[in-house]
Design a protein that fits this description.
This protein has 249 residues and is an alpha+beta fold. The chain is built from 6 helices and 11 strands. The strands form 4 sheets. A 3-stranded mixed β-sheet has the order 3-6-7, with no helix packed on it. The protein has a 3-stranded antiparallel β-sheet with strand order 4-5-8, with no helix packed on it. The chain has a 3-stranded antiparallel β-sheet with strand order 9-10-11, with no helix packed on it. Strand 1 (40-43) and strand 2 form a beta hairpin. Helix 2 runs antiparallel to helix 6. 14% of the residues are buried. Residues 28-59 have low confidence and may be disordered.
Length: 249
C-alpha cells in the first residue's frame, strides 16, 4: 500500500509539472492572425486576456502605370489614348470624320478650353482602324536578319504600335508585313570610289564584305580589267551591295 501511495504522489507531481510547462509555453493563449494590420483592441470574457480584431480590406491607392503618360492639367482633347476611355462605334464610314464621347481614367486630370477641370469630353477623329493608319503614325520593330537587297524584295513580320497621341479604332498594337529596310553602315559613294580607283585589287569587294570575290579580283588583277569595269557598273547602279544584305547609307 505504501508503494502504491508513493506512486500516486509522484504521478500527481508529474502532472502538475506538465500543466505548468503547458501554461508557460503559451498553449493556453488565444492565437491571433497578424497578417493584417491591428486596428483596435477588444477585451475577451477573460479580463486578463486581450484579443485584436483586424480591419476589413481597404481600397488600394496605388497609382496605375498609365498615369506616367498623362500630362497633369493638360487639355483633355490632347491626352494620349492610354489615358482616356471612349465609346467607339465600328459602324462609322471609313475615312469620314467621326465624333466619340470620351472620359478620363481614374487618377487623370485635364481641363477644357476655359481652363476648368473636365472629366467627360468629345474627341474628333477619322474613322479607320489602327492598322490602316499612315506609316508616320505608328512605330514598328526592325529586323536585321533578312536580306534588304534581294529580288524579289523580302518581307518580315513586324510588331507595330500606334503613337501615343494618335486615335484610331481597334487594337493599338498589331502585326504587319514590312519590306526589309535596314543598313549596316556601308556607304554607296565609298564603294563606288574604291571600285574605280582600287577595283583591280578587289578593294571594293573587300569593303562590302565579299572577301571571296575580293581574293578573286586580287589574284586575277581585276579579271584583266574586265571584272573591274563590270563591278564599277554594277556598284554604280546599286546591283551589287553589302554581303550582309543591308542597304547603302
Amino acid at each position: 500500500m505504501a508503494a502504491a501511495g508513493g506512486f500516486l504522489r509522484a504521478f500527481r507531481r508529474f502532472c502538475l509539472v506538465l500543466f505548468f510547462l503547458y501554461v508557460l509555453s503559451g498553449g493556453g493563449s488565444l492565437n491571433v492572425d497578424h497578417s493584417q494590420p491591428l486596428a483596435q483592441s477588444v477585451r475577451d470574457l477573460d479580463p486578463m486576456r486581450i484579443v485584436t480584431v483586424a480591419p476589413s480590406a481597404a481600397e488600394s491607392t496605388e497609382i496605375p502605370p498609365y498615369v506616367m503618360k498623362c500630362p497633369s492639367s493638360g487639355s483633355c482633347s490632347r491626352l494620349p489614348a492610354d489615358c482616356i476611355e471612349c465609346k467607339t462605334n465600328f459602324s462609322c464610314v471609313y475615312g469620314k470624320p467621326v465624333t466619340f464621347d470620351c472620359s478620363v481614367k481614374p487618377f487623370v486630370t485635364c481641363i477644357d478650353e476655359d481652363a476648368r477641370l473636365q472629366k467627360d469630353f468629345i474627341i474628333n477623329m477619322t474613322c479607320r482602324f489602327c492598322w490602316q493608319l499612315p506609316e508616320t503614325d505608328y512605330e514598328c520593330s526592325n529586323e536585321s536578319n533578312c536580306m534588304a537587297v534581294a529580288c524579289p524584295r523580302q518581307r518580315y513580320p513586324a510588331n507595330c504600335t500606334v503613337r501615343d497621341h494618335i486615335h484610331c479604332l481597334g487594337n493599338r498594337t498589331f502585326h504587319k508585313m514590312l519590306y526589309c529596310n535596314w543598313t549596316g553602315g556601308y556607304k554607296w559613294s565609298t564603294a563606288l570610289a574604291l571600285s574605280i580607283t582600287l577595283g583591280g585589287f578587289g578593294a571594293d569587294r573587300f569593303y562590302l564584305g565579299q572577301w571571296r570575290e575580293g581574293l578573286g579580283k586580287l589574284f586575277s588583277f581585276g579579271g584583266l580589267g574586265i571584272w573591274t569595269l563590270i563591278d564599277v557598273l554594277l556598284i554604280g547602279v546599286g546591283y551589287v551591295g553589302p554581303a550582309d544584305g543591308s542597304l547603302y547609307i
